[in-house]
Design goal:
Layout: H1 5-42, H2 75-78, H3 89-115, H4 124-150, H5 164-172, H6 177-199, H7 205-228
């Protein structure tokens, strides 16, 4: 690790403060967003499809090591969804839930591998950061799924993405903290850019607000991972969207 444990713990506390101060607002806006989506579902809309043209992303896959109820897989529930289940803003919501589930599962697998000694020596402060980040992603997933269920759609309780298998293989092959951190960084960068893209491609004001509020948390995850890897995260005025995840990566069996 390229920073001290004291520094990492300090960054983790700042991360928790950011999440704790913003998520109550997110929950309130999600309730309003969900109410609006109920009306949209009841009255079909002719709105355009979102996220067209976004570049592919590097993300992490679903793993069995998920340690939170937010992503406990329910095959019967997930199987009810197909490519036509989610449309308009709800497709973006489903994608966001899948991405958050990816993060929860990925961090869960990292913790499992660390516990088994498969990542070498793991400083305690790293495990503390991973645990904090995993919980925050779980909170986000629960929030997005609340919108889907209130709109009468099945929740996304797994990571049904076409890119899942390859990313799981990468994480399974990780041999060190640095290996796992690089993979997690790819996910966090993709998540931050996807939320950035969402702010310009979602119709509902509540959905835009939620995406804009969560995005800085994902960006802070990425910044901390950069520090862990010894890569100073150069501040940028605008986060790009080249690595934003496209909704056509959603794939339901």
């Amino acid at each position: 690790m390229q920073i001290s444990e004291h520094e990492l713990r300090s960054m983790t506390r700042d991360l928790e403060d950011l999440h704790d101060s913003t998520f109550p607002v997110v929950q309130k806006v999600l309730d309003e967003f969900a109410a609006n989506m109920v009306n949209v579902v009841r009255k079909p809309s002719t709105r355009r499809t979102f996220f067209l043209g976004a570049a592919g992303a590097v993300t992490l896959g679903t793993v069995a090591a998920c340690s939170t109820s937010a992503t406990t897989t329910s095959p019967s529930t997930v199987a009810r969804a197909d490519a036509n289940t989610y449309t308009g803003d709800l497709k973006v919501v489903a994608l966001a839930a899948a991405l958050e589930n990816l993060a929860v599962s990925a961090y869960g697998l990292a913790l499992k591998k660390a516990g088994a000694g498969e990542l070498g020596a793991v400083p305690p402060a790293v495990a503390e950061f991973v645990t904090a980040a995993q919980k925050q992603h779980a909170d986000h997933a629960i929030g997005w799924n609340s919108v889907l269920t209130k709109a009468g759609k099945p929740p996304v309780l797994d990571a049904p993405l076409t890119i899942t298998a390859d990313q799981v293989a990468m994480l399974m092959a990780a041999k060190s903290v640095a290996d796992a951190a690089k993979i997690a960084l790819g996910l966090e960068d993709a998540a931050a850019q996807t939320y950035t893209f969402a702010t310009a491609n979602v119709d509902d004001a509540g959905g835009i607000t939620v995406a804009a509020t969560i995005q800085p948390v994902e960006a802070q995850h990425a910044a901390i991972l950069n520090f862990v890897l010894g890569q100073y995260p150069v501040p940028v005025s605008f986060i790009g969207v080249d690595a934003a995840v496209k909704p056509d990566t959603l794939k339901f069996s």
